[in-house]
Design a protein that fits this description.
Shape: flat
Number of strands: 0
Structural class: mainly alpha
Helix content: 55-70%
Low-confidence stretches: none
Number of domains: 1
Distance between the termini: 40 Å
Number of helices: 3
Largest sheet: none
Order of helices and strands: HHH
Mean pLDDT: 84
C-alpha cells in the first residue's frame, strides 16, 4: 500500500510523520538499503496518525520554549 494523504493541507506534517517512521527504522535496523522497505514502512501512514504526530510535535516544541 502506498501512503495516501486524503486532505489538501498538512502535507508537511504528513511527510514528517512518514520520515519519522523511516528514521526510526534506520536507527533500529541499520539496513543497507530501503528500496524494498519504503512501501511497507509508509503504508501505515494515515491522516489521523499524522494528526497525532502533529500534536506530539507541537507539545515537544512547546516544552522547549517554556
Amino acid at each position: 500500500m502506498e501512503p495516501q494523504q486524503r486532505i489538501n493541507y498538512d502535507c508537511g506534517i504528513y511527510m514528517l510523520y512518514c520520515m519519522d517512521i523511516i528514521a526510526h527504522y534506520i536507527v533500529d535496523k541499520s539496513p543497507l538499503t530501503l528500496l524494498d522497505e519504503i512501501k511497507k514502512l509508509t503504508g501505515s501512514c494515515t491522516a489521523s496518525k499524522a494528526e497525532k504526530f502533529r500534536a506530539a510535535l507541537r507539545d515537544k516544541m512547546q516544552e522547549l520554549v517554556e
